[in-house]
Amino acid sequence: MLSARLQFGLISRVILYGVIPCISANAAGTDWESVYRERLAWWSLQPVAAPPPPSVNETSWPRNEVDHFILAALEAKGLQPAAEADPRTLARRLSFALTGLPPSLEDVERFASSTSPDAYGELVQSLIDSPHFGEHWARHWMDVVHYSDTHGYEWDTPAKNAWMYRDYLIRAFNADVSFKQLILEQIAGDLIEPRADAATGLNESIIGPMSMRLGERRHGDNADAEGVTQEAMANIIDTVSKGYLATTVACAQCHDHKLDAVSQRDYFGLAGIFMSSRWTVRCADTVDPNLAVLEELKGLKQGIRGEMTQHWLAADDFIAEKIASAPTSTPDTKAAPPVQPFPESLSAIWQRINFDAKDSGSIETAWTAFAAEFKSEREKRVADNAANLLSVADFTGETIPAGWQLDGSGMKHGLVRDGEIVVADEGGAAIAQVLPAGRWTHVWSSRLAGALRSPLFEQDPPPVLSVEYGGGQFAAQSLVVENALHSERMKFLDAPAQAWLTLTAGNFAALAGGSDPTPRRVYLELVTKSLNNYFPPRTAYGGVKDVDEKDGRSWFGVSRVVQHAAGAAPKDELGRFGALFSSTAPPTSKQELSARLAVAVMSAVEQWRDGACTREDVRLINEALAAKWLPNDALANPALALLVAQYRETEKRLQPDRVVGSVDDWNEGRDERVGVRGSYTEFGDAAPRGTIRFLGGPAPIAHEHASGRLEFAQSIASDQNPLTARVFVNRVWGHLFGEGLVRTVDDFGQLGEKPSHPELLDWLARRFMDEGWSAKKLVTHLVTSTAWRQTSVPDEAASAADPENRLWHHLPMRRLEAESIRDAMLAVSGRLDASLSGEPVNPYRVAEDATKRLYSGPIDGDGRRGLYLKMTLMEPPRFLALFNQPIPKVTTGRRDATNVPDQALALLNDPFVIEMARHWSERVMLDRAASPEQRVEGMFISAFARPPASKEVARLVTLAQHCATVRGADTAALLSCQPVWQDVAHAIFNLKEFIYVQ
Amino acid sequence: MNPLCPGCEQPALTRRGFLQRTSMGFGQLAFAGLASNWAAAEARRPVPHFAPRAKHVIFLFMDGGVSHVDTFDPKPELTKFHGQPVQWKADKGSQAISPSRKWLKNLWEFKQRGESGLWVSDLFPHVAQIADDLCVIRSVVGETPLHGAQNLLLHTGRSIGAAPSLGAWISYGLGTENEQLPGYVLLNNDWVPNGGFQNFASSFLPATHQAAMVRAHGEPVDNIVPADLGEIQAAKLDFLREQDAAIAAARGGSDAIESAIRNYETAAHMQSLVPDLCDVSGESEATLKLYGVDRANDYDRFYALQCLRARRLVEAGVRFIEITCPLTHSNNAPWDQHGELKLRHEENARITDQPVAALLTDLKARGLLDDTLVLWAGEMGRTPHSGGEDGRDHHVSGYTIWMAGGGVRNGITYGTTDEMGMSAVENPVDIHDIHATILHQLGVDHEKLTYRFGGRDMRLTDVHGRVIAEVIA
């Protein structure tokens, strides 16, 4: 457990993600400038050329330009390309390559039997148009950004709606959104013109930055343990630089890069950008889906207000009596009068005067004495506040105070004048509370989200602030230090309207086990559950239970923020009692006293009725409501009951805000200083924030206080960038051809490999950019080449001359990726749920662990494809991990395809495989096959997209008969014995041909 | 019931029944010609760099952090100043202390044990009896007082990120003595420690070197219990062999397919071998009693069982065996006693003390301790001071681990902390030093055990590590 007394981080240097903090190659005073110049000559940093496709001898072979490059290289070595694969092989290969799923049998048959020269192109087009194309290519990119649904480490905290980002990728690849646009969105989606998705109404751009938040993230902040945020930023720099640029910039955290043209200043230039960004949860709705419902609620609330007005005014008849029935003394008043607070409510005044009257003999004298005391107390408080308080922000008007930010539809629709009522969403009361002027997220419903974030606070000295606020149902406040993701300074709010929250921004003594002498960038955040980065927090934090996580209700509001000296917090000025004590004649009896207090309440109610009440009136009304002096029964009459019921029903129709972990650019802009050997506590010069020098280096940032993230994104998403397009087309090539033209797809530096066909790489990159950075056009171009249509059986001479197939004299056979193995079983067995998108499904687990939120899901994952299984970083889905789904901590552009006995054990014994075999067998029982041979043939075609040879049929039938014999079944009635067909199905899943594609 | 299909009603064979039919017996397991991918990896394995002192490692992972000042590092000054506010100057390697914290005396009495006179507290009465076999290091310094960071540091040499585990490095470096078994076995019970499965991962090393997890209870290893009756599975395997071979042949041979075919042979044998290894019913009554496998409480019994299995795995040739502690209560990690120190440390001791001592005793009696290095370590110690009366917090500036066997000196202590147990003041060692020393005992130079990844030669010890020559016999 992270102790509240957590001491401090001893992190003097960090070694991240397998990066050796190696000794600087130019440590001994070598001039970086000349080293840098020399390294700039590296191939991948040269501008993308536009080489013409070379001519070839065998002119009938090429179908497109790709083939010219491939064939020319083969001819230069005197090698032959492989023959074209047969149509069924091609159909299966295409389907897995483009959609990750086995082909539909209709497609295979149509294609195999067609003689049209357009048949192949049509098949390609149909697969490119398939919605599963987006799923498959999204999953490829998810390896690059190391997609995870949780953050691992100690508590496996959820990554805030990461699945919305997965769905964003699916939509983007399906819609063929320009990759250039996707780069801008994923790095700086908060800073560009929002791109709305017509079908979902989502602001796609704001979802993009989730790409940077994925993977291992710690809880706590830099004041807890120095380096927590920097570590996360190092992971972002590593991911972004490898992902888009195939450059290992994170190597330069501790020293200038050993071999590439990246300096430590470059690293800290980027670190400055990311350290200057706020990692917040953002609303992703482009249009307000609730306007019509809100109109209905307004009407209903108007009606409720009308009814309540009648009820409350009628209280005039009995309110004095109710007040008089309140207790007249508290036992300990006399015991310790000096510490007894000055009465700040009508009931306290009632008690005090009654109590004093026992001593002084009469209500009259007690009143007179107290009225004098009140007058001086009030004057003192008013004077103190006037002297002490400096208004920092006022939220009672339309204008949002400068430097503050509001988010969420609750906040948007939450501006109210004094006296706004909140209709109770359940229970016997009609009204939950009356609000003072300000912004309140629950004016219409506590299901609407809200966030309020402050500008950065001064740190030297840190100001003391008081916020007039209210909040509950796990809305939270947090002082966010150095843009921490999961601040353990978060506290849940539990205060009625009009409470004061006093904070010292930067007082970390209690948390750091001593004083934290480092000036920190700190801002205040008040958030409802859904806009809270750290909700749900680590298990049991702050008493959050499962039911609280699932309940969407949460609310808070603010009226104003003031600054003051320590110990000079705002005081209640008691204005609401001014009129009470201004009358000259004191009451002479208890009865008269209660009548006076009743008048105070009723005048507040009248002011409220007239729309003229003040925040002081609001307090009186709230007191009267809480004390049940004013009626508040939702069932008081049929009209009110109906209105309240309608309100509650209508309120349920409000669509909660759709929110996602994203990023924000605020006023944090600050350059980082170069950490000495990567240290978080020892610094050298400041490094101006900006892009890597070989991409132009730090450029002027549009706004002084902006992070520079937009400018950095633009330097990547640029036709002038020598790397971005090359790196992307190489990734796509790798996915389709088995290896990249540069096999080290994540490293184009000196530690990576050089391209096998540099001209082809450039030609593809140039064309990709010229065609608007279209992934679909690129994929189409590659799979329609003759090169891609080769068989996977190599020519012997070519194999001998080029055993690694660097020249692509055949298309290598490949094992399916983990998700495709699982998806293929779902598809073939008929269990696949082909629907797209949605919240992740827990993988099946033998054991659950509630403290880490590791829960088990259905064995078949509800039939959903592999990319919808929950990627819990603490324990990724085991079946997928077994087949090399990468651990989502670092960029993995090229997956391994290991071949280990555990995989055989899984295919033989894993409950998922058995379940799929059972499902498939139950389905084939309905196939009306006339013979075991016929059934076997059908199953074989389903699995492999090709008809079996007669020997293959015979083997399967023999297997079926053998199994039937062992099971004691009648071999003559083979067709109706389901367990036997489960055996056959299971055996087919275990054939190598099932998990390999040729 | 389907009358045409009586097989549906036939009761499935029990696991034992299956094993009786298919088990090959322990001695027959060194099959010839069953080259698995583990064996294929052998080709790339670096040979030992010098004569090894140990062939196996057993890592007893004390997850959560055992209090060093309550177990192996006595501090009479704590008793003297018990309850007094902590005034301690923060220096490098120590911590700034809040004035509200008070010194907390050791809660269990320390005594000198055996001929060596090694100090062991009454918390560990069984281990106290084998004190003469221990090499206690009292001066371990970690990096960050957080479980996740320290767990990963202890296991992988990195406090964050994705590096291979010590066990994976050793499996990779030394290869396996038994081609049918993985080089790194984790005796666990589905308990995921802080830092997650990364603690046991092969990361960039070949996947064969990641820990194979063996549960104390239920199916010992994922997918190890055959889903099919023996004869049915045999029929399927026959079919697969024939059909796959035909496909491979039609393609003029395919390494990948042929290797996958061999994996089925290996897998089939693992199905019997692994449960056999896990089954301790053939052990003598005395042995079972020694470990405490006969104890009534599940936690006690399971931990004892795993310790006994560790010895069997050493005998079977597994290089690196790790045993984790069970989590008995609602907490972050088993030994993480911010509160309930007395209760929970005693509970953890009850679970682990007897089996750990038994394991050493048994290994010694069988002559296995000489070439088996036992490491007893948590990821941190606990603070000598407390915010309350019955809890200690995270502490990494000087804490205790011990080793035994495998050519390390016995009956000694190495390194010291200051008089309050706050910081290592003499012979401080870090985790890299411990890793380097373990590798050294296995005949491996930690600077030469490398794996090329992302163009770099990666090391377990990164650019750090010193073999602690003073603890080597």
Instruction: Indicate the low-confidence ranges of chain B by residue numbers.
Output: 1-44, 91-95
What's the alpha carbon Rg of chain A, rounded to whole Å? 35 Å
- The class by helix and strand makeup of chain A works out as alpha+beta
Shape of chain A: elongated
Q: Which structural class matches the secondary elements of chain B?
A: alpha/beta
Mean pLDDT over the full residue set of chain A: 91
Span of the ends, CA to CA of chain B: 69 Å
Q: Which whole number gives the mean pLDDT of chain B?
A: 85
Helix tally of chain A equals 35
Helix content of chain B: 25-40%
Q: What's the total number of strands of chain B?
A: 19
**In terms of per-residue confidence, which ranges of chain A show pLDDT below 50 for 5 or more consecutive residues?**
1-28, 333-338, 508-514
Question: How is the topology of this model organized?
Answer:
The complex is a heterodimer of chains A (998) and B (473).
Chain A lengths: L31 H8 L25 H12 L10 H13 L5 H9 L5 H11 L1 H14 L17 H14 L3 H10 L15 H4 L20 H18 L18 H12 L1 E2 L2 E3 L7 H24 L4 H6 L21 H15 L2 H26 L1 E5 L10 E3 L1 H4 L2 E2 L3 E4 L7 E5 L2 E3 L10 E3 L10 E9 L3 E6 L9 E2 L2 E10 L4 H4 L9 E6 L18 H5 L4 E10 L13 H5 L7 H20 L5 H12 L11 H14 L7 E3 L2 E2 L6 E4 L7 E5 L21 H8 L7 H14 L20 H13 L4 H9 L12 H6 L12 E2 L2 H12 L48 H5 L18 H9 L1 H14 L7 H13 L5 H17 L11 H13 L1 H4 E2 L1
Antiparallel strand pairs in A: 1-17, 2-16, 3-15, 4-9, 5-8, 6-7, 8-15, 9-14, 10-13, 10-15, 11-12, 11-14, 18-19, 20-21
Helix pairs in contact in A: 3-4, 3-5, 6-7, 8-23, 10-11, 12-22, 14-15, 20-21, 24-25, 24-26, 28-31, 30-31, 31-34, 32-33, 32-34, 33-34
Chain B lengths: L14 H8 L14 H6 L13 E6 L14 H5 L21 E2 L6 E4 L4 E4 L3 H5 L4 E8 L5 H10 L9 H9 L9 E5 L23 E4 L14 H21 L4 H24 L6 H7 L6 H19 L3 E5 L16 H25 L6 E6 L3 E2 L2 E2 L7 E2 L3 E7 L6 E3 L1 E2 L6 E3 L2 E2 H11 L8 E4 L2 E4 L14
Parallel strand pairs in B: 1-8, 1-9, 5-14, 5-17, 6-7, 6-8
Antiparallel strand pairs in B: 2-11, 3-4, 5-13, 9-13, 10-12, 15-16, 18-19
Helix pairs in contact in B: 7-8, 10-11
